[in-house]
Structures are given as structure tokens and as C-alpha cells.
Amino acid sequence: MSLGRSIATVGFFTLLSRLVGFVRDIVLSAVLGSGPVADAFIVAFKLPNLFRRLFAEGAFSAAFVPLFARELQGEGRDAALVFARQAHACLLMVLVPFTLLMIVAMPAVIWVMAPGFTAEKPIFDLAVTYGRITFPYLVFISLASLYGGVLNGIDRFAEVAFTPVLLNIALIGAVLFLTPMLPDAGYSASMGIAIGGLLQWLWLIYSCWRDGVAMKLARPRFSPRVRQLVRLATPVAIGGGAQQVSTMLDVVWASLLPAGSISALYYADRLTQLPLGVIGIAVGTALLPLLARQLRAGQDEAAMANQNRAIEFGLLFSLPSMAALWILAEPMIRVLFEHGKFGPDDTQRTAGALVAYSVGLPAFMLVKALTPGFFAREDTRTPLYTALVSIAVNVALNAVFVLATPLGAVGIALSSSISGWLNVLLLAIVLRRREHWKPDTRLLVRTWWIAVATIGMSAALWVGMIVLRGPLAFPNLAGVAALAGIIAMGGAVYGLLGMALGVIRLGELRAALRRPAKSNVPGAPR
After folding, report:
1. Quick check: helix, strand or coil at residue 287?
2. Is the dihedral of CA 233, 154, 80, 76 positive or negative?
3. In a domain, 525, yes or no
């Protein structure tokens, strides 16, 4: 499958997931609001997600996918499956006791993660209870990530990309139907997380079985390949651990701010995650196995070209997304979330955080395009070092912005954006010096014209804001229609400018989506 087609497949289902996620967040904001119960639930939800980056999408996937691709390319599907099942057994051996330990130690975990809650015992107790309900999600999503790595390795992207939809559906259903039977909506939302994780796990078990790569239980064996997996995953785990410490410190700082700050950061981040998830994660997911196979086959020039096209894809969508989120931050938050317990003050606080996060959106997306250039070469140490530097800067900036300025939650979001740009700069410099990446003429020229098209779109959005400022002032159907109209108009302007400037060419898009790459992998689907 070509890079363009892979990105489109992952992007489509991720977009579906994000749209359902929007419905989820609208339901949560209306039922939970942006107060103490919402803050307690969000802290509890962040806990398994923090460790997921270590056990699942972060360390494990970055190390597992290239090794699985190497086994497919060199030894065939049967040998690759033996390796995957051994990795599955070892992951289970670590995950289950770790999860049990965290559930027992949840009061201490919440005390470390949200010390501001200790002043309010009812909120602290809620966070502990919610955390114990949500934490089994870690086991399910980590195993699902391994299954997803196997499916992506054989060019099965759709099943994996659809998986997050199940979590969103489970959370919406739990909040709407279980809340009347429970003490508050935080309990039902926490149960929705655990149920969603179970559904994701079962869905990918079925998908693997259907595609002939069933993950049967095996006795844990510390084979040479598993040892290599641990060796490659360890630096990413350290970097991921440091990144999660940084993320946890964001929550620590926010817990010391007025109530609602954690929720404001959460809702702002959710909006930022829409373009990042649709394009950034799609690029990274599709690029890593492709680069791994091409480099294994000695196709260095093809790998370089795909690296450049991945960066181009990222810029093509991230620059206009950054501008749109910045310009439309306040009306977007008002129209989408200002319902029920989510009030005007929450809108102002969340919109400020969204503007700060939007500054870093291109950086977050480019990291997804650059790190596969290291992981595909089985270099997991360099991204660790660059991540540690950016994390240190993030922590320092948090301290400055929170303690020495009145920025509050906005300062926390801005720190993340600045450190994200630093990480991109460091990754690009290292790849360039090693001659693993050289921006080609097409990338350089199109980056300039993408920026010009983004400026034109921004001007159109400002005009639309002025013309429709009346409807945008109210969180009702007229406001939704006005916001949708402005976004559609901005997208049309950007598309027309992009085609006029030559950065969007329908012929190229059709070719990228239709031209499948022939597989040389023994036993792989054709």
C-alpha cells in the first residue's frame, strides 16, 4: 500500500474517531462541566493514558514495528508471528501485576499526581475511586496496541484506526445511560473508559484472527528477538517516562490553580488533537512500517522521498489548522462546549489554552513525521535525548509561567508548544547531519506556498468572524451553523489557493491513493 493511501486510510478512520470524540466531549462538558468532579475524572483518565505511552503507542510500538517488519521481510509471516506472540506473552507478564499494584496504591498515586486535591478530601476520594475504575484500561489498550502493530505490519490500517471509535461510543453510552443509576457522572464516565478498553481489545483480537495473524497465548520466552525488543524499547520508555513525568507535572501545576484549570487544558487539548490525530498520527502510523521495509530492502532514495512527502503532508494540514484554531478559539469553545455546567468563564479559560496549544500544533505533527526516520533504523536513543532536552525546557517554562506570570493554564499550554518546537528542531538537525533526511526542492517550494495559502485563509476567517459575530456569540444551533459556515468557507479558500499555487494537485492525490506498492514480503497480502 502506498504512503498516500495508507495515510488516507488511517486519516479517514481517525477523523471518524475524532468526530465521535467531539460528541463525547460535548456530552462530558454538559454533564460533568468544568468543576471539581470533572477535574477528578480527567486526572483519573490521564493515569492509564500516561502509562499507555510507555507500554503501548510509545516505547513498545516504536521498537516492535521495525522488528516485526524485519521478520516479515526476511523470514516470512510465520517467524514474525512467533516473535509477536512471544512479545505478547512478555507484555502480559508485566502489565497485569503492574496494573494490580497501581490500583492498590491509587491514593499515593493521586497524592503525587494532583497534590492540590489533598486540600479537598471529597475531590481526592473521588479521584482515587475513579482512578481504580479506569486503570484496567491500560491492560486492554496496551495489548490492543501490540495487535495494531501486527496489523499495520501487514498493511491492515483500517481496523486499527477504527478502534478509538469504540472507546468514544462506550464513554458516550455510559455517561448517558449509567449516570442516573450512579452517584455522579464521574462514576459512569470512569466505567465507560474501562468498558471502552475492553471493546477495543476484543475488536482487535477478532481483527487479527480474521486476517490470519491471531495472537495465541504463548509461554513467555526471553528469546534473542525479545531481548532486542527490550533493548530498543528501553530508551523510548525512558524518554516516554520522562515525557509522561512532564505531562504529569502539567497536571500538578494545574491542580494548584483555580478549579477548572485541569478541565480547560483537557478540552483545549482535545480540539488540538483533532488535526493532530487525523494527519499527524496517520503519517507516523503509515510511515514507520514503510520506511522500515524500504531501508531493509536497501531502497534509501525511496525512503528519503517518503520522509519528505510525510513532512509535506504534515505541513499541508497543520499550518491552516493552527491558524483556524487560533482565530476561532473562543467561538469554537463557546459553540461546542458552553452547555449545561460549562459556563462563559470556562469558555474564556479554555479558549486561551487552545490558542497556546495551537502554536505548537505544527511541531507536534512534524515530530510524528520525523521520529519514524530514527525508529525505522532501529535508533531509539536519539529521540530519547531530544525529548529529554525539550522536557527539561517544558518543566522550566511551566515554573516560570505559573509562578512568575498571571498566565495560569495558558502558560502550561504555551510551555508544551515551545518545547514541541525545540524537539522538532533537534530531530531535524540530527537527521540532516547524518544525511538521513535532506529536504528536496519540492518540499522547500511547497512549504513557502502552503504558508501563503494559510495567510489567505486566515484573512478569510477574520472576515467571516466579523460578518457572523452575532450568531457566534451564542451556543445554539445558529452559532453551530455560523461556525460550520466559517470553517467550510476557510477550507474552500485554502483549497482554491492551494490549487492555484500548486501545493494541492488533484492528479497527485489520486495517484497517491490509487497506486498500491507491490509487496515483497513472504506470505504478506498483495
Report:
1. helix
2. negative
3. no
**All cell numbers assigned to 451:** 504558508
Question: Do the domain assignments include residue 519?
Answer: no
pTM above 0.85, yes or no: no
Cα–Cα distance for residue pair 111/117, rounded to 1 Å: 8
d(CA 169, CA 158): 18
**Cα separation values, 275 from 64, 90, 158, 272, 365, Å:** 26, 34, 18, 7, 9
Closest CA to 267 of 321, 324, 323, 332: 332
Count the domains in the chain: 1
pLDDT in tens, 292-326: 677 777 787 888 888 888 888 889 888 999 999 99
Whether 318 maps to a domain, the answer reads yes
In a domain, 460, yes or no: yes
Task: Report DSSP state, residue 57.
Answer: T
Helix H or strand E encompassing 404: helix 381-404
Distance CA 524, CA 304 (A): 24
List CB contacts of 125: < 8 A, sequence separation 6 or more.
none
Task: Report which secondary-structure segment, H or E, holds 345.
Answer: helix 344-359
Q: Which domain holds residue 364?
A: 3-514
Task: Choose among 269, 326, 275, 270: nearest CA to 461.
Answer: 326
